[in-house]
Design goal:
The protein is α/β, with parallel strands linked by helices and about 500 residues long. Helix content is about 40%, strand content about 20%. It contains 17 helices and 21 strands. The strands form 6 sheets. The protein has a 7-stranded mixed sheet, sandwiched between helices. A 6-stranded mixed sheet has the order 8-7-6-9-10-19, sandwiched between helices. Helix 5 crosses helix 6 (about 115-135), helix 6 packs parallel to helix 7 (about 175-190) and helix 11 (about 285-295) crosses helix 12. Bound molecules: NADP nicotinamide-adenine-dinucleotide phosphate and magnesium ion. The site of magnesium ion has 5 residues, from strand 3. The site of NADP nicotinamide-adenine-dinucleotide phosphate (NAP) has 28 residues, from helix 9 and helix 10.
Length: about 500
């Protein structure tokens, strides 16, 4: 196997990173002096040891973020355009380090190098570039009042940064999630403490270094690598104004409780999904098969918007199942640094066991299984899997798997399929494939999800709001809509006398 880079280059990129915490513009060890190891899930080998941030470090990071948010601090006095330029420069620096980031994401998460290079890193840079423009475009309004004498009162709103943010991210798309969080927070004028996922701390460390180089003042962006307890300490910290979290619905609930229990901090959440994908018989079937395979298999299926429940109109059901099973078979599973790899390993042993457990439950409950085997004997590789002929009561249909496993079932009538598609506690993504534009929009309107794709899947843009209905979250990220998460509205009422 020839890898896209050699061992020397890996050592150089991983070795040149700081492996400490970024607090108040300085790289520091954890207060306890402890470190933890991050693994390459393809080889199960240790990539690096990084600082193990805990509650004490979280407290120092929050203090730094608070000081940087104080009235009169450089960040507060900085012209909005200057803030925008810093965020833009950070986007430029991310692109300048495209290959380093792609390598770190592939090594730490397992995803194919080409995917990180073509998708994760460019999207992160574009998000930062897009958000940089918002720094100068956050506006309040002058409001024509309802019951007041308009010649006596002048009323307007100011949009102000919410304050010190805690931003907690997962391991599946680490760099992009970090960018989604810090880009708008900085554009809004907030200060922040970012907590990376325990499995994937590395790309955020490079991002932190570049943020300093771009001119982000000390204390404005702090990065704590650590475990769930560090996230919990942030969510409960009485001097944090706002927590934004991406991860599981289960941890999302804990965040809400912790946030309410301390100081009733503001909360926004991007949580899990079990996204339905509906293919009607009149669709372009070849495209529907390719896009639906991509919907579930991209990023090893470790995607909150994975199209994991597929419903296919009866007359094309066999053709679609055969087509997706064939696509699954043709996906080359392997080391993310092998240029031929289309799908990397799952993130961890725990995730491997979870995913294969769901595949077993599908088989036990009567689904026809295509794929589903372990690949190789080292690394957390599992073959892309189709569970065909599934029923709504099956565990693998009801629960989020967060792996490359799609449940496929036939349907007979348009009127029945939308209630079935909506029959989930989640509401993050959904999709519909049809050539009939009326049917497409009718279905899109009825699907209860934050994003509905029509004749495509996995298309994202920094300008387009993203988030969940129901238990998939609170609030939206990206687009102008994200600023609802990071701004307070102040109403100023003046008696002109
Ligand atoms: P997770 O266990 O919820 O972890 C997410 C983050 O929260 C990690 O940084 C984690 O630290 C931290 N954390 C764990 N316990 C915490 C606590 N009690 N308080 C505060 N923070 C805590 O999720 P995951 O396993 O990393 O990711 C998989 C899940 O995330 C899936 O369910 C998936 O759907 C969801 N997800 C959603 C989106 C979205 O945009 N909606 C995107 C990606 C993933 P540790 O790393 O130490 O556990
Ligand atoms: Mg790792």
């Amino acid at each position: 196997m020839t890898l896209v880079v050699d061992k020397t280059r890996i050592d150089e990129v991983v070795g040149s990173l700081s492996h400490q915490l970024l607090i108040n513009g300085e790289w520091v060890d954890a207060a306890s002096g402890r470190t933890f190891e991050t693994l390459n899930p393809a080889s199960e080998e240790v990539l690096a040891s990084v600082a193990h941030g805990e509650a004490e470090d979280v407290d120092l990071a929050v203090r730094a973020a608070r000081a940087a948010f104080e009235e009169g601090a450089p960040w507060r006095r900085m012209p909005h355009g200057e803030r925008g330029k810093i965020i833009h420069r950070l986007g430029d620096l991310v692109l300048e380090h495209l290959e380093d980031f792609a390598l770190l994401e592939s090594l730490d998460n397992g995803k194919p190098y080409w995917a990180a290079e073509a998708v994760d890193v460019p999207l992160a840079a574009d998000l930062l570039h897009y958000m940089s423009g918002w720094a100068t475009k956050i506006e309040g309004s002058t409001i024509p009042t309802s019951g007041l004498d308009p010649t006596q009162y002048l009323s307007f709103t100011l949009k102000e940064p919410v304050g010190v943010c805690a931003q907690i991210i997962p391991w599946n798309i680490p760099l992009l999630m970090a960018a989604w969080k810090i880009g708008p927070a900085l554009a809004a004028g907030c200060t922040t403490v970012l907590k990376t996922a325990e499995q994937t701390p590395l790309s955020a460390l490079l991002l932190g270094e570049l943020a300093m180089r771009a001119g982000v003042p000390a204390g404005v962006l702090n990065i704590v690598t650590g475990f769930g307890d560090a996230g919990a300490a942030l969510a409960a910290h009485p001097d944090v104004d706002k927590v934004t979290f991406t991860g599981s619905t289960e941890v999302g609930r804990k965040i809400v409780k912790a946030a309410a229990g301390s100081n009733l901090k503001k909360v926004s959440l991007e949580l899990g999904g079990k996204s339905p994908n509906v293919i009607f018989a009149d669709a372009d079937i070849d495209k529907a098969i390719t896009d639906s395979a991509n919907a579930i298999f991209f990023n090893q299926g470790e995607s909150c918007v994975a199209g994991s429940r597929l419903y296919v109109e009866e007359s094309v059901y066999d053709e679609v199942v055969a087509g997706i099973a064939e696509q699954a078979r043709s996906i080359k599973v392997g080391d993310g640094l092998d240029p031929g790899t289309a799908m990397g390993p799952l993130i961890s042993q725990a995730q491997f066991e979870r995913v294969t457990g769901y595949i077993r439950s599908g088989r036990d409950e009567g689904a026809v299984v295509h794929g589903g085997d372990r690949v190789g004997d080292r690394g957390y590789f599992v073959a892309p899997t189709v569970l065909a002929g599934t029923r709504e009561d099956m565990t693998a249909v009801r629960e989020e798997i967060f792996g490359p496993v799609v449940a496929v079932a036939p349907f007979s009538a348009e009127s029945d399929i939308v209630p079935t598609a909506n029959n989930t506690n989640y509401g993050l993504g959904a999709g519909v494939f049809t050539r009939d534009i009326s049917k497409a929009y009718r279905t899109a309107r009825r699907l209860r999800a934050g994003t509905v794709w029509v004749n495509t899947w996995n298309v994202f843009d920094a300008s387009l709001p993203f988030g969940g209905y129901k238990e998939s979250g609170w609030g939206r990220e990206m687009g102008g809509a994200v600023f609802d998460n990071y701004l307070e509205t102040k109403t100023v009422i003046t008696d002109l006398g």
